[in-house]
Amino acid sequence: MIRRFLGAVQFLTVLPVAAKTVEPGRAALFFPLIGAGVGWLGAWLFLLFDMAVPTQLGSLLVVALWIASSGGLHEDGLADVADAFRSGRSSDRILEILKDPRVGAIGALAVTLSVLVRWQGLAAVSRNFVPAVVASQAVPRAAMVVMAWVSRPAGSGLGAAFCASVTTPVALLAAAQGVGFALWCGVRAAIPMLAGTTAIVILAHRYFHRRIGGVTGDCLGATSQLVECFLLVFLACANCYS
Fold first, then answer.
1. pLDDT tens digits, the chain, 242 residues: what are they?
2. What element of type H or E holds 151?
3. Which H/E stretch holds residue 62?
4. What are phi and psi of 171, to 5 degrees?
5. Residue 114: left (phi > 0), alpha (psi -120 to 50), or beta?
6. Where are the domains of the chain?
7. pTM given for the model
8. Which of 78, 87, 221, 207 is nearest to 163 (CA)?
């Protein structure tokens, strides 16, 4: 279990891990927990910043911390997907672009919008602040594991290996953690949170399989970003679950 936990830390964060770890599919058991830890740290830093700087600035600093903590892993996936998936492109061309390390204009715009949405969403969260922020980071990681479990790998690389190695018990336990962190926000908030997350995963799954026959690591990262944006927008709307 320690090797699985360290594998999750190694895959999802920039923290150095010297010990031998396992493949991402087995480490995925702890992905929601790592996300919860990142969210918990962000929530308490936000409350600390709020005593010294304006709320908007504190929110931006926390989002920057989240991006730095993962090395921009999910943002990179979102940018690549935004650049690659254009109407009329063949699956081979899409996969070729996904492998290109350069970021195009559409990818840069997608990441900018993602940062803006999360920045403003976080600044507006007012109810159950710590549980809400923790869930905003844990649930997307759980969604990423479930997405990998129900999808076929496309192309080759780390994402394909991840999809191929996620087992049913790991996926179900990761999903259960996501549900648990959502319920921490209260049942009235958790139901739409989980319904929206499920809808995003289903729609993304259908879209990626239709276009390229499966998913890559970039597709998983982009899905995680979409779920995170949705959650922070929803949690910022106190009237939506009051």
1. 888 888 888 889 988 887 777 788 888 999 999 999 999 999 999 999 989 999 999 999 999 999 999 999 899 999 999 999 987 788 888 888 888 888 888 999 999 999 999 999 999 998 899 999 999 999 999 999 999 999 998 877 777 788 888 999 999 999 999 999 999 999 999 999 999 999 999 999 999 999 999 999 999 999 999 999 999 999 998 777 76
2. none
3. helix 55-70
4. -65, -45
5. alpha
6. 34-240
7. 0.94
8. 221
